[in-house]
Write a structure and sequence with these properties.
The protein is about 65% helix and about 0% strand. It has about 80 residues and is an all-alpha fold. The longest helix is centred in the middle third of the chain and has 36 residues.
Length: about 80
């Protein structure tokens, strides 16, 4: 089964993003016939939607973890509290 045959909802974020980048490169080359270009563009839009959904899920999980653990303070490069621990 080729990458293009895999169902988008089965792809991990990295797989979806990689395929999306590949399709964009293919479309930018200008060497794609119109019908294939439309098919690839449609898949690219679905891949973009999948990536956005996975990122939203990750953000929700992070927010839940932070809420469970309590408030956190922003990390700054000048923070030396980690060195004192």
């Amino acid at each position: 089964m080729s990458e293009g045959d895999r169902k988008i909802e089965e792809l991990a974020f990295e797989e979806a993003l990689g395929e999306l980048e590949q399709i964009v490169g293919e479309l930018e080359s200008g060497q794609v016939e119109l019908e294939r270009m439309l098919d690839r563009f449609e898949r690219a839009m679905a891949l973009r939607k999948r990536c956005a959904a996975l990122l939203a899920e990750a953000e929700t999980r992070i927010e839940q973890l932070v809420n469970e653990e309590g408030a956190t303070e922003p990390f700054s490069s000048g923070d030396t509290n980690a060195e004192k621990a």
